[in-house]
Design brief:
Elements lengths: L5 E5 L14 E5 L11 E4 L5 E4 L5 E4 L6 E2 L16 H4 L1 H7 L11 E9 L4 E8 L7 E7 L7 E8 L15 H5 L9 E2 L2 E2 L11 E4 L5 E5 L6 E6 L19 E2 L3 E5 L7 E9 L6 E9 L9 E7 L29 E2 L14 E10 L5 E8 L7 E10 L5 E3 L16 H4 L1 E7 L6 E2 L3 E2 L5 E5 L4 E4 L3 E5 L5 E6 L2 E11 L7 E9 L2 E7 L18 E7 L5 E5 L2 E5 L4 E7 L2 E5 L4 E5 L10 E5 L8 E5 L5 E5 L6 E5 L10 E5 L8 E5 L15 H11 L23 H12 L1
Antiparallel strand pairs: 1-2, 3-4, 4-5, 5-6, 7-8, 8-9, 9-10, 11-12, 13-14, 14-15, 15-17, 16-17, 18-19, 19-20, 20-21, 22-23, 23-24, 24-25, 26-29, 26-35, 27-28, 29-30, 30-31, 31-32, 32-33, 33-34, 34-35, 36-39, 36-47, 37-38, 39-40, 40-43, 41-42, 43-44, 45-46
Length: about 725
């Protein structure tokens, strides 16, 4: 009997100033393996797969966005990764700029790098923050032929913390190259030191190509705000041909175009990704910024703004600018769509807190993702990487799926009313969630609401809801706000990974989640029955490439075998062999693991199936003995010849997906085994002599005279065919 095995992953749990990855102990399940990479930035690899890199050169790889493995020897600490041969010699130039305070160690100050593949250069380009203790930071470019290195320093993109003093003197930067010889830097200074209310901290780079192929870098943290520079696509360095005017809260001649923040408001880890809805030309540049203090009780949260231009202006759902012309406490503010707050589903053993410093990805298949680190209710900073699918609503605003990504896909056809109505656990991501820095922070926990079939909402909130026919799109209205989003079937985060109908929606810069309390029932979610022509088919499993076949009365996957699929009404089908015996769920069981065998046809529900179109060229066969909750399933998702076919809970795994290949009719093949042999001749002769045991699986194949009947003339032609 197939089981989903539980595992625990032990991940060490501490950060040594720039010296080690941070891991934590967390209960997880077999479909996931965890890593701890702080400030994860993602790159889709040229050779396939995904790679994330974070502060202190933490790194990991994945092929499915679920299972992450430590990469580049990053588990050994920042001084022993494969990214650099020796950080102290390879990064000597930026270290010299930042190493001006007692106790400084480069190993603990390599923050939030971003990697992008530059096709013009044919190189992986790492944009790395080298942090200084008094804003004397810089962002540098290093390149490599391989994503894991080794990388070579190519130059510095931008500096901060420069003064006219002997230490961190402006002449040791590229400022004179940009502003001219002996530049006036008074606006960057306050009493001779860095003016942090105006000037940013040159850390947290994120580099992207806009839709016209221009290379850009957004960067900055707190203080003076978030800025953007255009880069030279040929070198990956700053494009000195692009000039910027100095206009307050708009742009600065050296720092570039202002994108967000300023005047000491919180905001770090900027990331820009162009995204559009699947099968749509509607797209925007989305700016993600993390507000707050990054400890688990610091109110850390992700905010979203967007623009139809790569360099802004960026605004939120209510038209508020991402730029702050005046200082304020914005952590609990109403500016910026808040993607999620501290929360805990009932299936989570501990709360998720301080989610942020994310990256994002629009993948080749159109799916959208947010990749971030989350912390827990432990007061000391253990963290792990999480990935959620992002859903774009009808207004072009993105919202995160309620549970972490498990391979789910939005339904192209929408959902049946019976599948979406009912009781839901409901989380409201409060914009102004309370916290006391480094001491305590509120956690949102689910309340109960009911989506009624008459379009009303009752329970913790009262209002109305609507699902757009033929799509997964939905709206929820209560408290004078309309939230728009979509229904999505997901696995929850329990050990059993129970499939549930969920919804995610956003409005007034606030996101809401719902998770149906009862498990997802695929049989309830049939919008219209899948109809295929009656005929002869082979059934090939997507995962193994093998076919459903008979082995001494047991159903297995093996060599190609032809089956007769015949409709019995209401979108239900039987699957029979050439002798009329049918695929049958043993004992008409409704349980997981029930065997599937071949038996004489009786018309029982155990021999009837409903097709589920997976919209990728494959189908799943839901068993009526389980009321459509389960389906034909290759045992343990095996690829072995002879692996058993059983009944298992439908979850749309590859072991449950089959391609129907219509079998071509072979002249004379009256027993429908795919070829013409003496066996067909003998069967045909018995049939014509009136032998009642001689049943023809395909009498039309024996009509060699093509006159609509079988007689001795057809038999003679078959004999001649075999002789020739």
């Amino acid at each position: 009997m197939k089981v989903k095995k539980l595992i625990s992953v032990l991940l060490s749990a501490f950060v040594i100033a720039g010296n080690s990855l941070s891991y934590t102990l967390t209960d997880t399940y077999a479909d996931y393996s965890r890593v701890s990479v702080h400030d994860p930035s993602i790159v889709k690899l040229e050779e396939g797969g995904y790679f994330i890199i974070g502060s202190h050169l933490g790194a990991a790889r994945s092929n499915d966005m679920k299972n992450w493995q430590s990469a580049a020897n990053s588990h050994l600490g920042s001084t022993r990764t494969t990214f650099f041969r020796n950080i102290y010699t390879d990064l000597a130039i930026p270290e010299k700029w930042s190493n001006t305070t007692n106790g400084y160690n480069l190993a603990g100050n390599m923050w939030a790098p971003d990697i992008i593949y530059n096709k013009d250069m044919g190189k992986y380009c790492m944009y790395l923050s080298v942090n200084g203790q008094v804003w004397n930071s810089s962002i540098v470019l290093c390149t490599s032929d391989k994503v894991e290195g080794p990388y070579t320093y190519q130059g510095t993109i931008v500096y901060s913390g420069f003064t006219n003093n002997a230490v961190n003197n402006v002449k040791d930067t590229d400022v004179p190259k940009v502003l001219g010889k002996n530049p006036d830097i008074s606006r960057y200074l306050s009493n001779g030191s860095w003016n942090a209310s105006y000037g940013t901290n040159a850390i947290d780079p994120a580099v992207f190509y806009d839709e016209d192929g221009n290379l850009r870098m957004v960067y900055g943290s707190w203080f003076g705000g978030i800025y953007m520079l255009e880069l030279d696509e040929k070198t990956g360095l700053r494009d000195y041909n692009v000039k910027y005017e100095t206009i307050p809260n708009v742009s600065d001649a050296y720092m570039g175009k202002k994108a967000a923040g300023g005047n000491y408001v919180s905001g770090e880890g900027p990331y820009i990704e162009y995204m559009k809805a699947p099968n749509s030309d509607m797209g925007y540049y989305y700016l993600f910024v993390s507000y707050g203090f990054f400890n688990s009780n610091g109110g850390y949260n992700m905010r979203i703004f967007r623009s139809d231009k790569p360099d802004g202006p960026f605004v939120d759902q209510n038209g508020n600018s991402a730029i702050y012309p005046f200082g304020c406490d914005n952590i609990r503010g109403k500016t910026g769509e808040r993607l999620m707050s501290n929360y805990q589903w009932s299936c989570n053993p501990k709360p998720f807190k301080a989610q942020g410093h994310n990256s994002a990805l629009m993948d080749a298949d159109g799916k959208l993702y947010v990749i971030y680190h989350t912390k827990f209710d432990d007061n000391w900073g253990a963290h792990e990487v999480r990935v959620h699918q992002l859903i774009m609503n009808e207004d072009g605003w993105i919202t995160a799926a309620p549970y972490e990504y498990s391979g789910e896909t939005l339904s192209e056809d929408g959902h049946a009313m019976s599948a979406v109505t009912g009781d839901y656990d409901f989380i409201f991501h409060t914009l102004d969630q309370r916290f006391e820095n480094e001491k305590s922070a509120d956690v949102e926990k689910p309340h109960t609401i009911t989506l009624n079939s008459d379009g009303t909402i009752t329970g913790h909130v009262t209002g109305t809801w609507l699902m757009k026919e033929g799509t997964p799109n939905m709206t929820v209205s209560f408290g004078g706000v309309t939230y728009k989003g979509a229904f999505l079937v997901q696995a929850d985060e329990s050990a059993a990974q129970t499939k549930r109908m969920t919804f995610t929606a956003t409005g007034n810069n606030t996101c809401i989640w719902g998770s149906k309390r009862s498990a997802y029932n695929a049989a309830e979610d049939i919008i219209k029955p899948v109809v295929i022509p009656d005929g002869r088919y082979t059934l090939k499993n997507v995962n193994s490439g093998r076919y459903i076949a008979d082995k001494n009365g047991n159903i297995v996957q093996s060599e190609k075998q032809t089956w007769n699929i015949k409709g019995v009404g209401n979108g239900e089908y039987t699957i029979s062999d050439k002798n009329g015996r049918s695929l049958t769920v043993e004992n008409a069981s409704a349980e997981d693991g029930a065997n599937v065998l071949l038996a004489d046809y009786t018309g029982d529900k155990s021999q009837e199936f409903r097709l589920k179109d997976n919209h990728d060229g494959s189908y799943s066969f839901l068993t009526l003995s389980s009321n459509g909750l389960r389906c034909l399933d290759v045992y343990e998702i095996s690829t072995d010849d002879g692996a058993n076919i059983c009944q298992w809970e439908y979850w749309n795994g590859s072991g449950q997906q089959f391609v129907l290949e219509e079998a071509k009719e072979v002249e004379g093949d009256v027993n429908a085994d795919g070829s013409v042999t003496v066996a067909d001749l003998v069967l045909m002769q018995k049939y014509l002599l009136g032998d009642k045991s001689a049943e023809l699986a395909d009498w039309k194949a024996g009509d060699l005279c093509a006159d609509g009947r079988l007689d001795v003339f057809d038999l003679c032609l078959m004999r001649r065919m075999l002789i020739e």
